[in-house]
Amino acid sequence: MKAIRIHNYGGPEVLQYEDVAEPSPGPAELLIKVAAASINPIDWKIRAGYAQQIFPRTLPFIPGGDASGIVEAVGAGVTRFKPGDEVYARTFRDGTYAEYAIFAETETAFRPRSVNQIHAAAIPLAALTAWQALFDLAQLSAGQKILIHSAAGGVGSFAVQFAKWKGAHVIGTASGKNQGLLRDLGVDEPLDYQKQAFEEVAQDVDVVLDTIGGETQERSLQALLKGGILVSIVQPPSKDLAAKYGVRAEFFGMHASSLDLAEIAKLVDAGRVKTVVETVLPLAEAKRAHELSEQRHVRGKLVLRVSQP
User: Is there a contact between 301 and 38 (Cβ–Cβ < 8 Å)?
Assistant: First the structure.
């Protein structure tokens, strides 16, 4: 099969488009013919060697963890899926930048039928991160106020829609060019971070979803009401600084979950959640996709088309 492989850590140039042996599913695993695979910031961080302690890899490896496609074969013990089923999934193993990929049954769900394979592939990591951060950790509920940074990005765009579905009041930050998208997604108070300091508007919020880190994270603690919570997906926050403001602050990493993906698919098919895909590139142009992702101004998601949906 054709795949993208990394033989050495480094810049986008280390992504090699080459022939690789097709994998075989083991017990409780699925072999998926990949229709599309999405690009996530963690992909290029792993490629550059920044995340070796958290996500160790044996070189060479195939990057990527999100995919949508069709079940080609199933391993022993698989009960919920059969060849021909259309699915989407998230894995932390090698790798979805390929014509075929292996997923555990517990990482896989039937894809939303109301969207095509390209848009389905854009969902798993970003949506799971938003879902679990808001509901499992922050326990966001109706009537609460939430501040979502980079609300036009991959995780942010899903977080906005999940929060609105739950009945929360949403404040979202983005650049000036994305203010219209924030309103389309349902943000109650769109903020242009290039023109105004968000903490002057966002005050006494119950939850902050931090997708930026650094100074933005520290300033966000000031926006929380006493007892509120900041959840960061990019950088462990200072517990001492959080205590100073009388708030909680947690670092969060998502986990693959077929159950959560199934719930998200229901919301997509009910028209409550949509995917935002900015750019679609063929698998062979993964280098270009990584270059775009590293600019950190992606509107929604980048997706690689692997085969025709």
Answer: yes
How confident is the model at residue 184, as a pLDDT?
A: 96
Q: Crossing angle for the helix pair 154-166 and 124-131, nearest 10 degrees? A: 50
Q: Indicate whether 112 and 146 sit together in one domain.
A: no
**If DSSP codes are grouped into helix, strand and coil, which group holds residue 186?**
coil
pTM of the predicted protein model: 0.95
Q: Is residue 257 part of a domain?
A: no
- At 43, the amino acid letter reads D
Q: Tell me which DSSP letter residue 52 carries.
A: T
Q: Specify the pLDDT at position 97.
A: 98
* Strands (DSSP E) found in 25-179: 29-39, 66-74, 86-90, 100-104, 108-110, 145-148, 169-174
Beta strand 189-192 with 301-305 is unpaired
Range of the domain at 26: 2-123+275-305
Residue keyed to tokens 């968000």 = 198
Whether residue 159 is found in the same domain as residue 233:
yes
